[in-house]
Design brief:
The complex is a heterodimer. Chain A is an alpha+beta fold. Helices cover about 35% and strands about 20% of the residues of chain A. By secondary structure, chain B is α+β, with helices and mostly antiparallel strands. Helix content of chain B is about 30%, strand content about 25%. Chain B is built from eleven helices and 17 strands. The chains are: A alpha+beta, B alpha+beta.
Chain lengths: ~500, ~350
Amino acid sequence: MPCYTVRMGQKPPAHTPEKEALLVALRGILPDHSVLCEGEQLRPYECDGLTAWRALPGVVCLPSNAEQVQQILRLCGQMHYPVVARGAGTGLSGGALPLENGVLLSLAKFTRILEIDADNRTARVECGVRNLAISEAVAPHGLYYAPDPSSQIACTIGGNVAENSGGVHCLKYGLTVHNVLGLKALTMDGELLEIGSKALDTPGYDLLALLHGSEGLLGVLLEVTVKLLPQPERAQLALAAFHDVTQAAQAVAAIIGAGIIPAGLEMMDNLALCAAEDYAHAGYPRDAAAILLCELDGSNEEVSELIMLVRDLLLANGAYEVHTARDDAERLKMWAGRKAAFPAVGRLAPDYYCMDGTIPRRHLSAVLTRIAELSRHYDLPVANVFHAGDGNLHPLILYDANQSDERTRAEEFGGEILQLCLDAGGTITGEHGVGVEKLNQMCAQFTPHELVQFHEIKHAFDPKDLLNPGKAVPTLHRCAEHGAMHVHHGKLPFPELERF
Amino acid sequence: MDADRSVELQAAVREAAACKTPLHIIAGDSKKFYGRAATGTPFPVAQHCGIVHYEPGELIITARAGTPLAEIEAALAAHGQMLPFEPPHFGPTATLGGTIACGLSGPRRPYAGAARDFVLGVKIINGQGEILKFGGEVMKNVAGFDVSRLMVGALGTLGLLLEISLKVLPKPQHELTLAFTCTPQEALAHITEWSGQPVPLSGACHDGARLVVRLSGSRSGVIAFQRKLRGEVVNDGEKFWQQLREHQHDFFKGDALLWRFSVPPATPLLNLPGQLFIDWGGAQRWLINPLPADVIRASAVKLGGHATLFRGGERIGQVFHPLPPALLALHKRLKTAFDPHAIFNPGRLYVEF
């Protein structure tokens, strides 16, 4: 198994004869400057957005066309070298963490927008195109691409597909999987898969869905055909302040219960909103225990009608103040605070650990109360940012990695939060993925038979287990060692299963 | 009567796996016309039924696969909610499991999403008789591969569905159906224009003589667009869309071969003889046409889509669009990954597995 315990200052992996042979072969596929294998060249690739985990890759490849990717994959398949694909490296679960004994395949050069089809409302783009660049490119047609993860200025569409990214508008407009019509991907043996088209469905199994959120384990994406939506006539944002987090949670239920699906419905607790206010000066009330941001979009008439309804519901559920944006500039300013919440909280402590559980919304109050208790127990502050409409919780645990045991405490605290989400009937990851970070929690969420089924799917695509191995799905061996499997009278469940 | 029959079903599947006995999964049998002809021992599953959990405030419902679709829709309607993909029943016995296994969606599909877009989780029995759960009852969940959506439209070839969790939505506050007498070409032009603007469409079809559109949303929003689009108000619009969904419109009467074209929505009219009904805002086109399958399929490919022999004819050839070799090989490997003894609905989807 790969080892990820490496930290800053690690020496580049040693050059072995096998690796020399690989480098020679790679330089036959790519120009010399697109094959990186020396010291500081490798450093930018040592981690993704999960910076607590670092490892220097054996080799970094920077291909610029599909044929090169295909040749690299075939070569690595023959030589039995594992491959990790990487987009912008903004992922938050270590999905793009390199392998010391493997090839890091950077798709940063695949940045062309290949086709905009305004009549069919689609865009076909290379995998390395940035999320926001799509909406910018199609804006002249009055269209946009709906999923908007907070990292949208930097993250790539290929990474969005691999992680099935969400965003603040996915309550109404869905996740990446709901907004992609087609993919071109290469399997580890270099076979080109063309899945979907500009039509709304495709014959056979829903491989499009299967590849979404597959964290680079099933194929390497080359192209994505996304669905575009007409820009709404108007968007309006209401900001409600509450003295009590429970009231804010009730207000969310009341809005949904009234049959309204807002374009975005976000909650921040006091620590998060104060940090965001200091950072972005969005106009958030510092004395609030929690704020809700509720955005409505649609026709002028619809938005005007619903915003009044939402305002009444917020006040009826205990909001002590409701402010609606005066104009679009103020609306964007109010959003800026939320979109900058992670970096804003990041200024409060040397390090933070971002969690990503999802819970049924009705348990929000109980879960937040328990998180506050855990925060006291572990003696680490936590700021809560919450996609309130869909139950996706982002507690940000603040710590200092240079203090003796704070990192360990933060990880234990995080593990307890994820277990809390599971106990509430939720999931360990709503949108950030499992990566290397939540492998142990996967053992708690799934039974050994379910994990074996995942491995069988993986092997249907990649029988040699060379594409991003060791990520997303834990081995049964790991689960047994981690002890998350329930051991009854000294016997592991499913003793017949091989603990590979 | 609501009942959890998962233990009996699991025992039966294990026995079939041990004996390598192919099973023909049957619930309501309302969609037996669909897909390739069934083979194998009939395996009734409809008694595993009942709504397990419905939480209107969370917009989720979980039900056993044998639950009648009508029962689910009635439960949702009592709370002003609906299945947004507007699934066709094709008969009063339709079940949730059959609906998801077929993966069919009604006229609202281009605007609200397809069956697969609303599936949040499944419990299945795989081909080794193991009961497995994937996904869950929350709207955002990226733990593990998305097996839940993979089951949609797989026609039961990957596993026996036991339970399905779906996202549901509030019914729109107001809906209005408008008709415009025009040619199919003019209808496509209108739809393309309106679809590129923030018009609150929730249905758009051309029935041979008229463009018929449905608007959904807040009352004031719908009325505002009614003024912009004009058109003639169709009384009892709800009935029109229901009949279209159930293929009870005159176009679908008779037992001629019915082809379904799935194409990019703005595709110009197909250069094929026969009768045409345009739905899904242009993206789904029904064609009654006796031409050979290879001619039909070649034209669908040329248009960037695919064609299904939806109803009628011999169901022993390929009724779904043949897969290219790389994808076919992958399908077979996936089938083996879930059902190594090939017991579930063999040949129902493709002749090769």
